Amino acid sequence: MDEKQILKRWRLILGAESQEQLNSLGCGGLSEEDILMDTALSQIYGGGQQGGKLGGRGGSSPMLTKWLGDLRTLFSPMEIKVIQKDAIERKGLRQLLLEPEMLEELEPDVSTASLLLMLKDQIPEKSKANARLYIARIVEDINRRLADDIRRSVTAALNRREHSPIPSAAALDYKMTIRRNLKNYDRERKVLLPEKFYFYERASKSASRTVILDIDQSGSMGESAIYSSIMGSILASISSVRTHIVAFDTAVHDLTDLCSDPVELLYGIQLGGGTDINNSVAYCQELVTEPEKTTMFIVTDLYEGGNRAQLLRRLEELKDSGVNLIILLAISDSGKPCFESGLAEKAASLDIPCFACPPEKLPELLGAALKRRSLAGFEKTAYDKK
């Protein structure tokens, strides 16, 4: 990149006020595309000629949709998400999220969706269909990224235990077949000639394991609540897993009946409000019928507003009963979680894994949890109890 291009980038970053000074350094004028980009950025970040006009409602919608269209032309999807988020936070676009035109143009983004879910009771009738379509796009995106991997990991964890005499290409145990037939390797032709093939048992038609997702729906857990709910919907579609989805603030809401429709499930989440983890864990205890076959995820930032001492006793009871108990501090694309470290340390001292998990690690985490393997590798990524 030459010096002129570097100066031009600084001009776009610093805004129109820097034009004269940068010209003296040899910046030169802006191209037509540069001017369009400068105008789009000045709406959010500075004092361009049109800065500040994105606030308000009514007649601004046509200009807003043009602005969003310009973003698509000028920036990458990742950059657009950052600019959209800044627009909502800096320029009062929160209310504009309720406008149909805004929802049609927004790029799918989990943090924006969590804000939309917080505002869902304020959404006017004219925008409700668009809001659902936007949430559906988020669900579709997460499903595309995670669904197949989650099903594959869960199926492998639950059903690849014993071998079957019934042949099935999908159930072929490649590693054992190769290992048991190495003596039949033809060195001249460089091929393996198996005498016998080994197959995994087919999946059981009835649920053999129970997974409970206990989801904190306080405002700070927006992205985690979305990922957890969609993960629950995917798990509920697997017949060999019995799935319960519970959401809580100061009250407890059992959302299990909504698992078949991820959009309805997300609309059942009431983001915002206080936090009573103890109350929710007490409810989930009643769902446990076979502790040794139950894995329970509590998705929370551990800012407990209820009875902390009783919560720790309940966690210890669940752990001692044989429930595979895991605390997820966050499931988010947004980076490290904010959480109450004192309660996290006490939970970890009970030998309860307590860590954050990026979305792409969820399939691997589920597989390891259902196999009851050590999760030490996951813990080190976010919260080390030591």
Q: What attributes characterize this protein structure?
A:
single chain; 386 residues; 6-stranded mixed beta sheet; two-stranded antiparallel sheet; 47% helix
DSSP helical segment count = 16
How much strand? 5-15%
Q: Runs with pLDDT <50, length 5+?
A: 47-62, 382-386
Rg, nearest Å: 26 Å
SS elements, strand count: 10
Largest sheet: 6 strands, mixed
The N- to C-terminal Cα distance equals: 46 Å
Helix % is 40-55%
Overall number of domains: 3
CATH architecture of the largest domain: 3-Layer(aba) Sandwich
| CATH class category label of the largest domain | Alpha Beta
| Helix and strand run | HHHHHHHHEHEEEEHEEHHEHEHEHH
**Strand arrangement, major sheet:** 7-6-5-8-9-10
**Which class best fits the helix and strand makeup?**
alpha/beta
The 3D shape can be described as globular
The CATH homologous superfamily of the largest domain is named: von Willebrand factor, type A domain
Any idea of the CATH topology of the largest domain? Rossmann fold
Average pLDDT works out at 79
